[in-house]
Design a protein that fits this description.
The chain is built from twelve helices and 23 strands. With 461 residues, the protein is α/β, with parallel strands linked by helices. The chain has three domains: 1-40; 68-276, Rossmann fold (3-Layer(aba) Sandwich); 283-458, Ribosomal Protein S5, domain 2 (2-Layer Sandwich), CATH 3.30.230.10. Residues 42-51 have low confidence and may be disordered.
């Protein structure tokens, strides 16, 4: 059988008969990868494309079905996708080993099957018995409409799709599958992209739309393995974050053609699987009575996607017996922590050059917003003074290098959420509120500088 080798750019798809260091179309460097092409198969594929060519239609004439989503019973998963799984969508889920990808997808399969849909779960990494053992451990009952296939051949998966006619197809993982017409090994760029292309064609079939969720491997740099082309092919990219020894798991959409990006779903990893966290604020706060208050704790409000979460920030300041004190932030970047400590030393007049400083959050939530910086500093001050801050006080605001408090986005909505939850006081930047709003229970303290906040909380109180 006659074969030939061509080279394809992973960034723009430009093809060449020889390898080039820089693409002549998009000017990207080292983006060409090798493809072994069967000339007969390619000719037949081109002929098929010619037959299947369709005419364009007006956008205004395209009808959208209101029931185009498969809404699962897992609300945190629905939230991330924007309301459920779109019926002709292709999603890819990636995470570190042991984060719970397969567990979550098996729970989704069970929930979808119980709602009357057919599910095909194809795994190139686990045997049928391994999948069955996990299902028996985390599922109460195993629905009849879940089919499993343990194979690394995408050709066999495509045949199984024709036989079973599933509504949802789960591939675990895309880097383990191969198509027979390509000679490359499993996990190579060409195999991963072409297998994904085949699944996209299955999902986007106008006569029978199907939803596809693929698992993608993650690199040591916490990025999805393989070419960026794979991310461009799919409709959504989901990241499942969380260490294997921690309870909290965070599901985030970094790409979503059918909803907003940045939305997160929160889960707790338990023996019976991934349990959705319905009330995040309770999960990320420690309930204490007034006589149980401890130093080194401060509260703030973070915005994760469309939801507002009250988070507790804890700090521990201790004397250092080494020339270089430790700066440990389990929930934020070390550079950010060092910057806040420098601001506190210079603008808050609290020396920390001989002190170890450790920061973490209750529940292990990662701090990505600048709105928590004031709360981080106040938790450190509380630890240094060994004086607790009342658990009905919240701090919202960024702190500049000048020691001035800086305004943060959506501050009105954050305060409304605190007011609803019954908090008594909130400290915000001066002129942080863009409009005059009256709140029922909470008292708002607009303050200009960090030093004023410290004096107000620890001296006036």
């Amino acid at each position: 059988m006659k074969k030939k080798i061509i080279y394809k750019c992973s960034q723009c798809g430009n093809e060449s008969l020889k390898w080039m260091g820089r693409c002549s179309e998009c000017n990207s460097w080292n983006s060409f990868y090798e493809i072994v092409v069967d000339s007969k198969n390619k000719a037949s594929r081109e002929a098929m494309k010619e037959i299947e060519r369709v005419s364009p239609v007006k956008l205004s004439d395209v009808l959208v079905d209101d029931s185009h989503r498969i809404v699962t019973g897992i609300e945190e998963f629905n939230r991330v996708l924007g309301g459920g799984i779109v019926r002709d969508s292709v999603l890819i889920l990636t995470a570190r080993p042991g984060a719970g990808k397969s567990t979550l997808l098996l729970q989704i399969s069970s929930d979808v099957a119980k709602r009357g849909y057919k599910v095909l779960y194809a795994s190139g990494e686990e045997s049928e018995s391994q999948i069955s053992n996990r299902a028996n451990r985390i599922l109460d009952t195993i629905p009849e409409d879940i089919w499993i296939l343990s194979d690394t051949s995408m050709d066999n998966v495509l045949k199984a799709i024709e036989e079973i006619d599933p509504d949802l197809i789960i591939i675990d993982s895309i880097q383990t599958f191969t198509l027979e017409e390509f000679d490359s090994r499993a996990g190579s760029p060409i195999q991963s992209v072409e297998c994904a292309n085949a699944l996209v064609n299955v999902a986007k079939d106008k006569n029978r739309s199907r939803a596809v969720i693929m698992v993608g491997h993650m690199t040591k740099a916490n990025e999805m393995a393989g070419l960026r082309t794979l991310e461009h092919l799919v409709d959504g990219v989901l990241y499942l974050e969380g260490e294997s020894d921690e309870e909290l798991r965070t599901l985030m959409a970094t790409k979503n053609r059918f909803g907003r990006t940045g939305e997160i779903g929160l889960f707790s990893m338990e023996e019976e699987g991934m349990i959705p966290i319905d009330n995040p604020s309770e999960f990320f706060m420690t309930k204490r009575e007034k006589e149980e208050l401890v130093s080194g704790s401060a509260l703030s409000v973070v915005k994760e996607g469309s939801r507002l979460i009250v988070v507790e920030i804890e700090s521990l300041v201790s004397h250092s017996f080494t020339p270089y004190p430790a700066r440990i932030g389990e929930c934020l970047r070390r550079d950010q922590l060092n910057t806040l400590i420098s601001i506190l030393e210079q603008r808050g007049n609290i020396p920390l050059y001989d002190k170890n400083v450790v920061i973490k959050t209750t529940g292990g939530l990662k701090l990505r917003e600048q709105s928590v910086n004031l709360a981080i500093i106040m938790s450190i001050v509380s630890s240094v003074y060994n004086r607790p801050i009342s658990n009905d006080i919240v701090f919202i605001g960024d702190v500049g290098l000048t020691g001035e408090l800086k305004r943060v986005p959506s501050i009105e909505g954050r305060i409304k959420e605190l007011d609803r939850m019954g908090f008594r006081r909130v400290y915000i930047p001066k002129e942080g509120l863009r409009q005059n709003i009256e709140f029922k229970n909470i008292q708002v303290f607009p303050i200009r500088t960090l030093q004023e906040v410290i004096d107000h909380v620890f001296i006036k109180d």
